[in-house]
Amino acid sequence: MKTVEIKAFVPAKDYQLSKQFYKDFGFEMASDEGGIAYFKSGASSFLLQNFYNETHSNNFMMHLSVEDIHEYREHLKNAGFEKTYNLNIPEIITQPWGMLEFTVIDPTGVLWRVAQNV
Question: Coil, helix or strand for 65?
């Protein structure tokens, strides 16, 4: 048995704001039908859903691997991402499991761990 793909359903408290957030975060919105928006970048994708539950959202985490974490972080900072979404993009840290990483929290409370293999 072979699988083809796995996608998470990411919650959105403010669906319109979240769609813009993910476009600015670097994803392409490929479709938007019935409260589900399909976002992709390269071989990575997820479904943004017009659904919100505080407990669920504040415990939801995504992990995004990028080729160049320094370039990705600088792009977000230079694009005014922090000011636009009232958030802080922390410094890149080296994790003991062999990854460089920084985190971003989306407007719903979803934690994104942006990482690069060392």
Answer: strand
